[in-house]
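PROTEIN DESIGN WORKSHEET
SECTION A - STRUCTURE
LENGTH: 591
TOKENS:
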């Protein structure tokens, strides 16, 4: 696999930033809600941490996303695929028409959880998707595809219907109708002509009523939550369809249009042998194209794309006796930066502690790194939608406590949850997330971790959800946050919390659990793929770390980053088993 740079994954580097249990804590493998329930059973007052409220936001978002997918996105996806199937029925005269028929046949098989299709070529492709073993040259698309990405994981292992939805959406958005042939992807000119012919034919069908409305609604439902795509758009294809040119000329015209109108990918998602790029051809060129369901652009992924080879150059570290950075890989015999790091993102957002860790790891010791940082910062500054609001929360949190390791740990856990919730929809960078409380047995002495600015910022973020994705659960969570912010302000002023405040905090875990319906659990998400090493970078949130403050007990995030075999992308269940067996790679020591 010499020379490979994968374009698929996003973010992070090995080792974790976890708090060891504090004096007075009883180490257990417990989740947040289990720990607070233990407090209730043992009569220990709650210590409500910033981590718990950030988790609360993530769980409300998980609950609303689950409902969005099952009640809205899944039915719309069925409508779109059924309409495409009907429109393509019987049209198999040309290679492009036959390939489109097989494409939709595969998507329907995935959606309806079938393991068989009629076409032999489509059956081979379907078998590869279901096996989800790794990087293989696709018999249908003529390009190398990382099939391991189609393994259901995260929220999508709860039942067969969600697993089928995951595979279908993942495959529909992974398939790139590429317009530039290249040895770097394995796509030849004949296949590139067919790709464009397929895309043009599908675009013509998708613009017709009533399918056009269902297709638009499916994409619009995801735009604010996960961002817009950064590939060619449907209207770009429809405009090209009117031109009287042969297919190679159309492809060249479309490539020139994409270069001029910001339709080339900022976040690279695909498998490329960078050593095989032709003179004058870039990775962006060979990954320019259209997707039936676009992968979504997010500013954090775009920023981290700037921090790997070839946006940064060779490793320049001069510490002969030091271990090499975990970000380093050998590509064509040269030491280059193969992985970005969550710490780099946190440093860009204002964490002094994260910046220190980046320097300690020597992740900044690469040619052109300062220029790459500036480009990454530009991507963050251009953020919009929900991802922009979430980044604003992170910036506010770090501005209030830039050197605080506990703040860094809390916001790393929050960011990991948001990556986890968006694993199916967001593009991943690659290398070449109350009122009326009933308290049955009040406990006195509860406190909240003072972090008023962070709680207010979280309230602003929730306000964005109330505006763009209104749901009574966001209203209830806003009330909970307001109560927490008031209690935090009292502590900032040195005031004693009232009995009502303490009762509110002691019942907070029950209120949140009632609101979200499902407790927390360890989570893991693959965020970067490196084909050269046949590994993915996994990021996880483990069992709660216990914090004790003046006899009150609370919970904090634990955060893991580690490499893992590409063909064995972890599910939450597998990650939890590794945690229980204490076999998760990477350190759990403070950094």
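SECTION B - SEQUENCE
RESIDUE ASSIGNMENT:
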């Amino acid at each position: 696999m010499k020379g490979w740079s994968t374009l698929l994954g996003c973010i992070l580097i090995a080792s974790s930033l976890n708090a060891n249990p504090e004096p007075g804590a009883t180490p257990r493998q417990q989740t947040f809600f289990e720990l607070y329930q233990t407090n209730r059973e043992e009569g220990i007052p709650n210590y409500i941490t910033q981590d718990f409220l950030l988790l609360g936001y993530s769980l409300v978002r998980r609950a609303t996303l689950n409902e969005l997918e099952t009640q809205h996105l899944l039915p719309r996806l069925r409508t779109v695929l059924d309409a495409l199937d009907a429109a393509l029925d019987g049209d198999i005269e040309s290679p492009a028409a036959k390939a489109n028929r097989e494409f939709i046949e595969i998507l329907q098989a995935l959606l309806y959880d079938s393991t068989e299709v009629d076409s032999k070529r489509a059956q081979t492709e379907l078998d590869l998707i279901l096996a989800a073993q790794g990087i293989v040259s696709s018999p249908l698309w003529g390009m190398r595809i990382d099939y391991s990405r189609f393994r259901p994981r995260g929220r999508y292992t709860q039942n067969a219907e969600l697993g089928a939805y995951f595979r279908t959406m993942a495959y529909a958005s992974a398939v790139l109708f590429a317009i530039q042939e290249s040895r770097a992807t394995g796509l030849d000119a004949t296949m590139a002509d067919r790709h464009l012919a397929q895309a043009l034919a599908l675009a013509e069908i998708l613009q017709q009523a009533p399918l056009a409305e269902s297709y638009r609604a499916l994409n619009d439902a995801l735009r604010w939550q996960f961002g817009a795509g950064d590939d060619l758009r449907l209207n770009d294809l429809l405009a090209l369809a009117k031109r009287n040119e042969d297919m190679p000329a159309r492809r060249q015209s479309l490539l020139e249009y994409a270069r001029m109108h910001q339709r080339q990918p900022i976040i690279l998602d695909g498998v490329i042998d960078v050593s095989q790029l032709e003179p004058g051809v870039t990775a962006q060129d060979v990954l320019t194209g259209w997707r039936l369901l676009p992968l979504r652009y997010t500013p954090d992924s775009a920023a981290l794309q700037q921090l790997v080879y070839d946006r940064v150059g060779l490793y320049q570290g001069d510490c002969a006796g030091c271990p090499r950075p975990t970000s380093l890989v050998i590509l064509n015999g040269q030491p280059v930066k193969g992985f970005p790091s969550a710490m780099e993102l946190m440093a860009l957002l204002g964490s002094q502690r994260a910046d220190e860790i980046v320097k300690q790891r020597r992740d900044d010791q690469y040619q052109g790194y300062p220029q790459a940082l500036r480009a990454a910062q530009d991507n963050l500054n251009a953020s919009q939608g929900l991802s922009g609001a979430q980044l604003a929360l992170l910036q506010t949190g770090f501005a209030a406590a830039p050197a605080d390791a506990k703040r860094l740990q809390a916001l790393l856990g929050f960011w990991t949850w948001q990556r986890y919730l968006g694993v199916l929809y967001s593009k991943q960078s690659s290398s070449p997330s109350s009122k009326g409380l009933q308290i049955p047995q009040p406990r006195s002495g509860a406190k909240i971790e003072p972090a008023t600015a962070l709680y207010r910022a979280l309230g602003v973020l929730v306000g964005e959800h109330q505006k763009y994705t209104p749901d009574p659960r966001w209203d209830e969570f806003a009330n909970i946050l307001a109560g927490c912010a008031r209690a935090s302000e009292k502590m900032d002023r040195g005031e004693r919390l009232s009995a009502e405040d303490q009762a509110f905090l002691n019942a907070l875990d029950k209120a949140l659990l009632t609101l979200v319906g499902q407790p927390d659990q360890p989570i893991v998400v693959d965020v970067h793929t490196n084909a050269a090493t046949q590994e993915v970078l996994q990021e996880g949130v483990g069992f709660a770390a216990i914090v004790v403050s003046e006899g009150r007990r609370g919970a904090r995030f634990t955060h893991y980053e580690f490499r893992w075999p590409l063909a064995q992308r972890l599910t939450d269940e597998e990650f939890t088993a590794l945690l229980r067996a204490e076999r998760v790679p990477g350190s759990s020591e403070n950094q």
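SECTION C - NOTES
The CA atoms of residues 84 and 322 lie 57 Å apart.
The longest helix spans residues 50-88.
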